[in-house]
What does this fold into?
Amino acid sequence: MMNKVVFRFGLMLLSLIFQSSCSQESPNIIIINVDDLGWKDVGFMGSEYYETPNIDYLSSLGMVFTNGYAAASNCAPSRAGLMTGQWSPRHGVFTVSPSARGRSEDRKLIPIKNTHTLSPEHDILPEVLKDNGYVTCHAGKWHLSDNPLAYGFDVNIGGNHAGLPKSYYPPYKNVTIEGGSDKYLTDAIMEKAIKFLDTVQKPFFLNYSPYAVHVPIMGIDSIIPIYEKKSPWKGQANPEYASMVDNLDRNIGLLINKLKERAFLDNTLIIFTSDNGGLYGITKQKPLRAGKGSYYEGGIREPFFFVLNGKIKANTKSDVPITNLDIFPTVLQYAGVDASTLHLDGHSLAPVLEEEVQVFERALFWHFPVYLQAYNVNDNENRDSLFRTRPGSVIRKGEWKLHYYFEDEGVELYNLSEDIEERNNLVATHLEKKDELLRLLKNWWQETKAPIPSTLNPEFRD
It folds into this structure.
């Protein structure tokens, strides 16, 4: 802890030296991290059911990534990855507690114990930005501790340890809005975020992380009829959920208008993504397989784009695979903050965003030594009907993706360029590729000290 204090004091001294000359040039930072929004749940990714004109407009101002990933397939570990820029074995947040979900008799192994609260020992993005002259605001779902103010935020709007609101309509019961509100929760949080923007006078970081569109599915009565009249599209046919997406888009429109009003838009780095895939059964992401909680593409591939006028060309697209771990180093580069002393697993995407490179070769990893039960055993696209995921790891390198499962040492190998649906397991016909990826994965386990579950569960019934 002492080393961290000394390091932060050094950062603050450097910040004081350079702030006066750089403050006018430092871009504002906004991360829009939507909850449970699927890859195809927005218009700019092709949905013909959900209507998201404001998000679509914002995406047109920058670069869209078609192979954008979350660091995990459910909320807390994905958010921990974004805030630390580190793979899950380094921070230990593997799931939403507990790690032993589903019936014990169906679990062959004792899962690794999950970390419920992100350790403050880590370097957290808002802390680093605050130490470098930014005023920081969290708005919405936090999910990593009881209070985001202890992690470098100056302002907290509705954030606590809760993973979902008990109600989107007041009283919200487990979410507190200072001063109270009689509005739908998504509206109340944006109203407070806009008030923050009305008063801010120096470079700011806004972590806008709405509870929407996580369950409970509580529609907006005035919007639902619009979607009741629409034809279903590739598994998207829930008017209540669609009204939540629609209302979220309306709120993002209010954010855009405020940025324009205050002349912030042209000097603000905006990053849009989701913390994990859409909830299968509520929405679907065809042709992707499965949804939230699964490490098939439907659970981890996200709508993802970056906007920064003058640096990132409008209406551009990239197929480079990226992860939300890349947000931390990318933000620091554009903020002019030296990241060389930080231990970040993500990479700055500036060379891709500014079209200096077309290829960004590296492997991406996921590690989930836990169990996550299925929502509906009669309707899912998981490896088996009982669990969205069983303990395992995944690696993607280039177009190839390998799944490894600890219970039975099972391996699945897919070429995503030919089989984005992950239906044709090539492990028997591409042994060299399987061996290559498995070797890289095992080396990564050692490098990150990834905990591997191996203890048999005495209550398991085969």
